[in-house]
Amino acid sequence: xxxxxxxxLVALLGPAAVFAAGRxxxxxxxxRVESCEAVLQEFMSSPEHAIPQEILQQAQGxxxxxxxxxxxxxxxxxxxxVILVKKPDGSWSVPALLHAGETSLGFQVGAKSIExxxxxxxxxxxxxxxxxxxxxxxxxxxVAGPKAAERERDNRPIIDAPVLVYSKSKGLxxxxxxxxxxxxxxxxxNHVLYSTDYNLPELLYSDWVxxxxxxxxxMNYVRDITR
Length: 227
What we know:
Blueprint (H helix, E strand, L loop, with lengths): L1 H12 L1 H6 L5 H20 L7 H5 L3 E9 L7 E9 L10 E5 L12 E8 L12 E3 L6 E3 L11 H4 L3 E5 L14 E4 L1 H8 L5 H6 L10 H10 L2
Parallel strand pairs: 6-7
Antiparallel strand pairs: 1-2, 1-4, 2-3, 3-8, 4-7, 5-8
């Protein structure tokens, strides 16, 4: 009976059940990083969703979130994210994996997946993740960021928010307050990905962990678009 229930759970929840059961491999974590890189590239290649260059130049951190519905009947959203931060010398950290909890964007009801890019303009905001759980829009003000197609607007009041949110959805207006559920550190995944015992603070703010080849393309892309 227990085996049948586990198989049913996997069929119902898909990837979420596999990861929750602790079966994720290093290859799975590499896929998460690569998929987040693809999400960012898709945002930047779309006139509708592209993040303005002046926003990216002020970025102190970037979080890329990929979420999905865990079940048709349950309607629970789960997913993962990566975070990179800009160090004091101007270089970018290795990407660190995060858990991404349920969102509360009502206009996305019915969506099979939710892709979001958060630009952090405050160097202190990423450190909120050190306390294990960070509620986006609660622990730090989060607003919908201006898009490249909206250059005629005066976006200074928006840019001053510590978290600028870009989501592939309709109804998200620049400057609107956003609450996106929670993010939390995933030290276990990072231990496997980087073959290290160091945790999120060391990954983001030290030079003790060297990038593995699979994360270099994302690091290079973030460096290039934030120049």
